[in-house]
Design a protein that fits this description.
Shape: globular
Number of domains: 1
Distance between the termini: 44 Å
CATH class: Alpha Beta
Structural class: alpha/beta
Order of helices and strands: HEEEHEHEHEHHEHEHEHEH
Strand order of the largest sheet: 1-2-4-3-5-6-9-10
Number of helices: 10
CATH topology: Rossmann fold
Radius of gyration: 19 Å
Helix content: 25-40%
CATH superfamily: Alpha/Beta hydrolase fold, catalytic domain
Strand content: 15-25%
Length: about 325
């Protein structure tokens, strides 16, 4: 089997058993979306009518970091589809130079591709920034019967964008959120391709709590996560509101909020959940922004599978 120091680095995150299961179950696919070739990892059930879950990464991640989550939910009977968004992971595209709108379109295109490939009912899940992206994808018509948002952020709000960054305290100073937004807009108009070190923007050392301390040094040396982002991307993170505002939501949504999150305040996700209209569910988990341990995986799979099975039963009863 061909190996590459860059593309195989992800194996350092996982134990031998997990890697053996990956090698036994995993297949790949590629589609074109927003003009670039996207990479997709697949964990397919033998039954083509099994429910399908499309799992979407956040700003500092990519498909193969999600491997344990993918396998835990595969074991619950789902066909798992895990794409890398443009310019990230194993997908093509100018690294770090994309917009929220393009990332949302990537999710829509992957969901439509999966709907055509499989016969099962389809759901979306996203973590971190991916939580807001999957909501936006459903809002513009991605074929999902329900959405799971592990964190929920509003990309039409400079307040939320600041909350996701190491500059979060600024959002509490009257007027500074507006000034920050105006400054980024002005700079983007002059130099949209100017790159900012990505890790200087967020509190990434607080990504996990003490139980997962081994994760961070592996991630910090991983060559695949984005290292710098353009002002064009930064501007899009607070100027791209969802097509359907949270208050007018019509898609069933489960919001998962990690209550020990020190990277982004859990109050942001809780506030956005409270804004949601429509059918919604809220679950808190006592973990950091991201987690990897066996106890986390068991709890996470229970919450996600329990909610999606409920949606399957409700829709079957309705004849949908």
């Amino acid at each position: 089997m061909h190996t590459s120091p860059i593309t195989d680095y992800w194996r350092r995150y996982h134990n031998a058993e997990t890697l053996a299961r990956f090698d036994a179950l995993h297949t790949e696919a590629h589609i074109t979306s927003t003009g670039v070739r996207l990479h997709i990892d697949l964990y397919e059930q033998p039954d083509p009518a099994a429910p399908v879950l499309v799992i979407n990464h956040g700003g500092g991640g990519y498909s193969r970091i999600f491997l344990p989550v993918a396998l835990a939910l595969y074991d619950r009977g789902y066909t798992i589809v895990v794409p890398d968004q443009r310019g990230q992971g194993l997908s093509e595209g100018n690294r770090g130079d994309f917009t929220v709108g393009q990332l949302v379109q990537n999710i829509v295109d992957v969901a439509q591709w999966a709907q055509a490939r499989y016969r099962g009912r389809l759901f979306l899940l996203g973590g971190s920034i991916g939580g807001g992206l999957v909501y936006q994808a459903a809002a513009v018509g991605a074929p999902a019967e329900a959405v799971v948002c592990h964190n929920l952020y509003d990309f039409g709000s400079i307040h939320d964008t600041l909350a996701m960054s190491r500059f979060a305290p600024l959002r509490h100073v009257p007027g500074l959120s507006w000034v920050s937004g105006a400054l980024i807009r002005g700079l983007t108009a002059v130099a949209p391709s100017l790159r900012i070190p990505f890790r200087a923007l967020g509190r990434f050392r607080d990504m996990v709590d003490g139980r997962d301390a081994a994760f961070f040094p592996i991630w910090a040396n991983d060559p695949l996560p984005v290292k710098a982002v353009t002002l064009r991307y930064m501007r899009s993170t607070f100027t791209t509101p969802p097509a359907v505002p949270f208050e007018q939501n019509t898609v069933p949504v489960l919001v998962i909020n990690p209550t020990r999150d020190r990277m982004v305040s859990p109050a942001v996700t809780q506030h956005n959940y409270e804004r949601l209209g429509g059918e919604k569910r809220y679950a808190e988990i006592p973990y950091g922004h991201w987690a990897t341990g066996a106890d986390f995986l068991s709890m996470y799979a229970d919450i996600v599978d329990g909610y999606l099975r409920e949606r399957l039963a409700v829709n079957s009863a309705r004849g949908v």
